[in-house]
Amino acid sequence: MNITLDGDKPIFQQIKEQIEDAIIDGYLMAEERIPSINEFAKQYQINPATANKGVNELVDRGIIYKKRGVGMFVSPDAKAILIEERKQTFESSYLNPLISEAARLGITLEELIEMIGRKKR
Questions:
Q1: DSSP string, 29-92
Q2: What's the DSSP call for residue 8?
Q3: Residue 1's pLDDT is what?
Q4: For the chain: N or C, fewer Cβ within 10 A?
Q5: CB burial string 47-58: b at 16+ within 10 A, e below
Q6: pTM (2 decimals)?
Q7: What is the C-alpha to C-alpha distance for residues 59 and 120, in angstroms, rounded to an integer?
Q8: Range 93-115 average pLDDT
């Protein structure tokens, strides 16, 4: 797993998001082992507590689970959980504002669907 860190977001958040993306995109599969906290820390030259913060958020949400003495693994339901969370975020961040702006402009639902359909082609 290769994570590219940048300065725009906290490192723990970048690690968390890139693990999530790898699960959604199929690069990390259910029951697959992810790097340990120490592996993250060594590879990216960061404090282990930083890596631990990002991974623990995934553990708390049921995306990753720990096997004592063995490592951390992608949970069987991780992809489904992440997709459902992202759908909810998509609706609140993109769809609701889109519908509100369309209503302000007098765009009907049918016109909006037609506009979206043209973008898919």
A1: -TTPEEPPHHHHHHHHT--HHHHHHHHHHHHHTTSEEEETTTEEEE-TTHHHHHHHHHHHHHII
A2: S
A3: 62
A4: C
A5: eeebbbbbbbbb
A6: 0.81
A7: 36
A8: 93
Provide the CATH topology of domain 11-77.
Answer: Arc Repressor Mutant, subunit A (1.10.10)
**Angstrom distance (rounded) from CA 83 to CA 17:** 13
* 108 phi and psi angles, rounded to 5 deg: -75, 165
Domain limits of the chain? 11-77, 79-120
Q: How far apart are CA 14 and CA 12, in angstroms?
A: 5
How do residues 36-75 score in pLDDT, each as one tens digit? 999 888 988 889 999 899 999 999 999 999 999 899 999 9
Amino acid at 1: M
What is the distance between the alpha carbons of residues 95 and 102, in angstroms, rounded to a whole number? Answer: 10
Identity at 7, one-letter amino acid code:
G
